[in-house]
Amino acid sequence: MTDPNLTAEILTVLTPFLPYLVKGGKLAGKKAFEKLGEKFTEEGWKQAKNLWEKLRHKENISQVAKTVAALPENEALQTALAEEITRALREDPKLA
């Protein structure tokens, strides 16, 4: 069984950076800092990038994450992303 707190922690780290992570590249990271300003640290960006690198290869996560990035206020989409992350963690214990 997957720890729901782990999924919540992953979402907390990823969600603010999703619009930049789904675009990829260093330029996206630079734009993230310009837009997000002091609110987020470089360490947060590194954590988000590392998590995204592990999760983005899961097709369902990648698809839902792109939609969440486009519509970040949509709670139903955020719930769908949480469900996909939970499923991925359950299917791949090494990922957790």
What descriptors fit this protein?
96 residues, mainly alpha, 6 helices, 73% helix, globular
SSE topology:
Layout: H1 4-14, H2 18-21, H3 25-36, H4 42-55, H5 59-70, H6 75-91
Can you walk through the features of this model?
By secondary structure, the protein is mostly helical. The chain is built from six helices and no strands. α1 (4-14) packs across α6 (75-91) and α5 packs antiparallel against α6 (75-91). The chain is globular and about 35 Å long.
Number of DSSP strand runs: 0
What proportion of the residues form beta strands (DSSP E)? under 5%
Please tell me what the overall shape is. Answer: globular
Tell me the quaternary state: single chain
Spatial gap, N to C terminus? 11 Å
Radius of gyration: 13 Å
Number of helices: 6
Report the biggest beta sheet as strand number plus sense, adding barrel if it closes: none
What series of H and E elements makes up the topology?
A: HHHHHH
The portion of residues assigned to helices is over 70%
Task: Offer a quick outline of the entry.
This protein is mainly alpha-helical and 96 residues long. It is built from 6 helices and no strands.
